[in-house]
Amino acid sequence: MSRRETRLDRDIAAMLAAKAFTEIRYLAGDARRSPQNTSAEEDLERIRFLADLCHNLPPIARPRPWRPSRRGAPGGSREQAMAERPMGWTWHTTGPEGRAWMLRHIEQDGRRWTPPPPLPAHHTGPSPMTLRQQITVLLGRWPVRAPAGRLPLPAEAHVLKALDTDAVCALYAEAGRLRLGIGHGGPWRAHLDPDGVHYLVTDPANYYWPGNTDGKGGTIRWWQVHRTVTDVRR
User: Fold this and answer.
1) Count of domains observed in the chain
2) 39, exposed or middle or buried, with CB in 10 Å at 0-12, 13-18, 19+?
3) Is-contact 228 198, C-beta < 8 A?
């Protein structure tokens, strides 16, 4: 993938954001409205459409440095794809009307632009341990490093918990019922060997690190499990 396409995506994002803001400003003006024009409700619906379509475009045009959710974690295939073609998410998550709006303005602006390819499928199940983490375990050290300014996980968290598939899914569903903010039960089962033994690795994301605020006036007192090691021997 060429850097030219990446730069062009960012230029396209800036141009489309400017077009959307101009149209929204026009729609929001009372002076241009007359009885034969569209109703206020139709204008408001159009503004919603433009805002929903283009709210992610300014960060595409001027991106911030990417930071992993876990210290030392590499970017996934989706992150890499969106870094190469920054317009990928906006293009593939909008509908036919949104794509037609983008293509019309791109053509009117005299640009030659190829839409980005489909994004890699989003992985919804548990992530495997990285090679570095596996080596760290073999050396007798816990493979999770604390984010800057945070205390390491306590010794009782340095344990691989063996669970079968039903127990893993039940645990995930319980986290959903407790509203811990990490989703609801369901997607893990499709990615787990039904007869395997799964060893849970305590691996909180930086924003779920114990001691952080829980958004309810307290602090996080639980440990997020993001990775598993599965034994499928029969």
Assistant:
1) 2
2) exposed
3) yes
**What H or E segment, with its residue span, contains residue 231?**
strand 225-231
Do 7 and 99 have their domain in common? yes
Joined tokens for residue 53? 């379509």
- Amino acid (one-letter) located at 38: T
**Which tens digits make up the pLDDT trace of 116-135?**
998 876 554 555 556 666 66
Same domain flag for 13 and 88: yes
Reply yes or no on whether the pLDDT at 21 is more than 90: yes
Question: How would you label 10-30 residue by residue, b for 16+ Cβ within 10 Å and e otherwise?
Answer: bebbebbbbbbeebbeebeee
* pTM of structure: 0.51
Closest CA to 166 of 147, 130, 207, 194: 194
The per-residue DSSP string of 148-176 comes to: TTSPPPPGGGS-PEEE-HHHHHHHHHHHH
Q: ∠ CA(89), CA(9), CA(21), 5° rounding?
A: 80
Q: Is residue 188 part of a domain?
A: yes
Same domain, 50 and 143: no
- Looking at the structure, tell me whether residues 213 and 173 fall in a common domain: yes
